[in-house]
Amino acid sequence: MNVAIFFLLGLRLAISFTNCYSLETKYFQQKVDHFGNLDQGRGNAEATFRHKYIIVTDHIDVPEEANDEILEVNEETDDVPMLDMKNQTIFFYAGGHGPIEGYFNKSGYVLDLAEYYGALVIFAEHRFYGDSQPFEGSNTTFPDTLSYLNVDQVLADYMNLLFFLKYDYDMPNAKIITFGVNYAGSLAAYLRAKFPHEIAGALASGAPVKMADNFEARTLLWTQVNKAYESAPSGPAAVETIKDMYRALNELWYYERIGRNSISEKMNLCVLLANEEEYKMLLATIRNVFVQFALHNYPYETDGYPANATEWSARFLKKQTTPSTEAVRLLVYEFYGLAPEECLDTFSVFQPCADQTGCAKGRLIATPKYNLPTNQRHQWFGINYWGSQIASVSNIIWTNGQLDPFYGSGIIDTSTPDLAKVGSMENAGHGLDLRAPVEGDGMEEYREIELELIGQIIDGTFPAS
């Protein structure tokens, strides 16, 4: 179908889907190290791990010889049969920092798009998360194993998996379109930028790619969270409560040991604060609560969060009659699921993660299996992955919700009216466009535009003016 025709006629597509899919969870025998020297035969050059992925084949004709077992890596032969082409579209979701089931459950519109375009759907899990563990047990704590937790290896995982699945499902010349939200959206864009000969295009929703080389973009998150609360009906009063809490804690901090003990008592910490690092961890633990409510600020209940999550949390603070520190503590306890008699262990409920956005435990917030942070050379990352200049890469649909805390950290493409619309979606929360459509979510027009833009990538007409 030539979607450009619909543009010329000025039509919008009415979409009706069954929302019923049969999925399979499979494993691919993935390389631990894609860049080791095979000739030397040492280290992890030959090591593999079970790489988890979810696949939906409802909308393609699957050849009978498709392999149901774990695919074996074969580096020694180029003898891959070229079977007859059937449907030639693959939608690939690049998993981020969490088990892949979470991404699948939050991406219903990707499945709807696949139904419309007859695409094979793959959701691939990020190494070191969920069940895709390159190293098990205590070995994962070693610095030399954590060095394998980086974007270079992740992209190689995804391309290696795609290469085998294309032939396994008789789609050697398939047009591949990648998808993702937030960090996963960045990965989707990086796949298109790094492998344009294999990846036809990408839809990156709320992808904070500017954070790689733009200091202002790294701080915009906090500005956006403030805006999310200020725009909520009960928000202004909550913002004042939060500011009062921070002022009170910071003033106490200057009284050294007496102040640290007072903060520990007011926040009911399990262990008395001993140094500035522990104080900063407390502030990050509190801050994460407001970031996560803003990230899950949807017009309906989802993922364990109430509808209009920022307004809900603002009302929670507003109705408290206690001092600001106690009001915020009660909200922190509510978020992390702590009982009133429990103490707060900041290093247990919140820990940084491996990518540039970070994540934490708490209300269904995903963390790596072993909760281990890793550092990358930030300057080189910006160079290697284009930073803000990734906007020049072709065939990427950049979508951003104005209510998303990462709004402003991603790319807003104004080259066509439709790209400009989805690049700055009004009343849209974090990744709302790729979630399953819900009546009244306000995403109908934006999703129809995305459907047409995906069709243009498939047809080779992107972007049509």
Main sheet specs: 7 strands, mixed
Count the helices. How many? 16
Give the termini separation: 18 Å
Order of helices and strands: HEEEHHEHHEHEHHHHHHHHEHH
Tell me the helix content. Answer: 25-40%
Characterize the structure shown.
This protein is of the alpha/beta class and 465 residues long. Helices cover 38% and strands 10% of the residues. The chain contains 16 helices and 7 strands. It has helices spanning 4-9, 100-105, 108-117, 143-146, 151-168, 183-194, 215-230, 235-253, 256-266, 276-295, 309-318, 324-336, 346-349, 378-384, 417-423, 444-459, and strands at 23-31, 48-56, 89-94, 120-124, 175-181, 199-205, 396-399. The protein has a 7-stranded mixed sheet with strand order 1-2-4-3-5-6-7, with helices on both faces. Strand 5, helix 6 (183-194) and strand 6 form a beta-alpha-beta unit. Helix 8 (235-253) runs antiparallel to helix 9 (256-266). It is globular, with a radius of gyration of 23 Å. The two termini are 18 Å apart. Residues 1-18, 63-86 and 354-376 have low confidence and may be disordered.
